[in-house]
């Protein structure tokens, strides 16, 4: 229980990041509703519908500045017990209509309890891949047993594979040996086998066996395990076709939105690493099940998985305490690629003998996801100097050409994902994702996820009535800040002007600073969606980290300019080059030399799934990449501070200024709101 006699308990909801103080005894559902948290409930809080399930977390959360005691919520009650006995409930979950706040607490709202389903914008990009997978199907005719030539069925299967397919030695574990004899006899000595034989040599592994000709195919999963989202692609291992792409939130968000917060949680809370490992493995199984359902296949036909992730996710997925990654020299337990049984990571939703390949990590803060981006985008084969930025909660940055490739990781934080933003939310139906602001009238128009019209177009109101306008996601806040700068609402230092200074009453007083109102839904019980000064600062911190990382690599390369920029990840696919450049997220370059690569890490995982030679190639490439450590490089801070300005304090950005006029406005009047700065009229 909270020991502070003055302050009411602090309630922090993840993944939204929304927080507030509430009197002890407040139901969690009530707190969620007052904060605008996306938490479902249809039974009026009577503990009947089960829609409002939440997951409280306990322990020390240094990122949030709270320690959650075991009695932070009220005791399990009879309504919850009755529901658990009748319907069942996952361990650790509570009904938010029944649990009441007793002390500071961190509460996760799982995806199934959210009204607006998360949109994981990491769809598979079209890519021509030479098919040479590690796991293949082989149809063979096996000689029947003969008393005069006593050999086992496995040995005769091995001989048949050698004669008919030129395959050497094979191995099989006990679970498939048990299937071998009945399957051979059911197929009348004609069977189809799935064999795993990768680039490392050694005997082929017998993954599964079917009687006669198996025509159901075999499949693989390519998974990009990110800090915020986990995206997966279900692929046909024969044709390379992507049958389904899906994703979900990484449930570890409740332990900390950024990587170092999760390392800190493991340090501060005994068993915290095991808790996070368990959470992410459950999520991987849930994703596998979802993909199999979406692809309409038997999950037992998923025979292989490739996985890419950053180093902290890498260790937590493997069940390795990430504590060493939280302090210099940032040592990995292993940086090599790994080939394991999928069941070693408790992946039980797929074939029990499926294999798992994890791409190599580059260094302590540059992981297998960066290696996958290098495999997909091939900067080492570029004739010109290319900067590749894979932007998420953590940014992986590559700079190189045929001569040399450099890599670093930069802690951009969760602002690009819509977290730590006052009206921010994850990408879901109802979230504002695109914005334009008229530079003359200062009026905004916007688009909402799931709606194909702009807010000023006929029919928008009718369409948006289904979802409502609920907040602003990462792509929306990035465009909003850039548009505000172009419209003269925001000065180069990142200060929002008053109504008098900007000429629009959409700039409202907000304490000692100002906010810009994008949409006011309060008249209809909806939210006021605005960009606050705090939101601007969060975006400045995130974009400065990205730019500083890129500049460090350019310093190491000895250049002041790059030839082209590739934006990767969910960010890269949804933000225009113009807005990225106006913010100063990336170094100055002609706008037509900035392109999107979509989910490059996921594409790299698919390439590795479908082509064993690519695995050998990326393992070689990783050893040749030069790693630059931002955490200990003195110049990083200098670049970071200069990059706080929008677009930049010292770099002139000539290419940008040729394409986009940036008003020369300054709103720091030395004390105040500016005359008229406290006008409060809000408009929708």
TrEMBL record:
Chain intervals for the UniProt region annotation (Disordered): 662-684
GO molecular function: iron-sulfur cluster binding
Pfam family, one: RACo_linker
Segments passing through the bilayer: none
SUPFAM superfamilies: 2Fe-2S ferredoxin-like
Record's protein name: Uncharacterized 2Fe-2 and 4Fe-4S clusters-containing protein, contains DUF4445 domain
Domain 2Fe-2S ferredoxin-type, chain residue ranges per copy: 9-113
InterPro entries for this protein: 2Fe-2S_ferredoxin-like_sf (IPR036010), 2Fe-2S_ferredoxin-type (IPR001041), Beta-grasp_dom_sf (IPR012675), Corrinoid_activation_enz (IPR052911), Raco-like_middle (IPR041414), Raco-like_middle_sf (IPR042259), RACo_C (IPR027980), RACo_linker (IPR040506)
